[in-house]
Amino acid sequence: MFFRKNKREIGIDYDNLPVHIGVIMDGNGRWAKKRGLPRSAGHQAGADTLKKIVTECNKMGIKYITVYAFSTENWKRPKDEVDFLMNLLYNYLKDAEKTLAGENVVIRAIGSREELSEKIRQQIRKTEEFTKNNTGIVMNIALNYGSREEITNAVKIIAEKAVKGECRPEDITPEMISEKLYTGGQPDPDLIIRTSHELRLSNFMMWQASYSELYFTKTLWPDFSMRDLHAAVMEYQRRNRRFGGV
Ligand code: IPE
Ligand code: IPE
Ligand code: MG
Known about the structure:
The chain has about 250 residues and is an alpha/beta fold. The protein contains seven helices and six strands. Strand 3 (about 105-110), helix 4 and strand 4 form a beta-alpha-beta unit. The longest helix has 24 residues, at about 80-100. One 3-methylbut-3-enyl trihydrogen diphosphate binds near residues 26 and 196.
């Protein structure tokens, strides 16, 4: 069924929306370089894009969005860039508490918190607490996130249970592993979008992406617009998902 929303004919089937969208927000550095600006300007522009896209996903009725903001491998970048990104994420969380919370968004951080500064950890706790009773879209910010770390962490939790005699190794199921990931209790992403034409997952949701539809676009993340989001959703709706069946 196609219908008009916000007086715009956008050709989206609202009965067949992806429930969960994952986004690998890539290309900030190249966006800045093209303009002769420092990489930090690209990250700042990317953060502004993120707010717009989350707001639109929420309006569209998408239930979950997971955005890759900082990977476990991104610590390899120059200290100046890492410091800038951490500060940007801190400000994003702080600001989101006011703006996105007002739009009913539930904000959560996924990833390992151990390596993050106490200042950021505290802000994560505050933002999560402040938005936890909201009823709109759930936004997972993948921050110091990597699938391999996430799966390793889940395995450790299950191994400890086995050692304590709370479960037997032969009883471990894929569902138990899913449950112990940072996204435990949430549906797997239906659609994963990656910008900037890099055709890889870069350690993003590798367990959860088993049957996700992958969408790659040449658009650099700061330029990613509502139109691009709609194009990705419409492309998703043209796919034939089979999950191994016929
Ligand atoms: C994505 O943009 C943001 C992060 C990884 C934090 P990049 O910084 O990777 O931008 P490119 O890939 O160098 O253009
Ligand atoms: C993936 O982008 C991480 C984020 C978007 C946060 P990268 O730019 O770090 O990935 P690679 O290095 O090109 O694979
Ligand atoms: Mg990149």
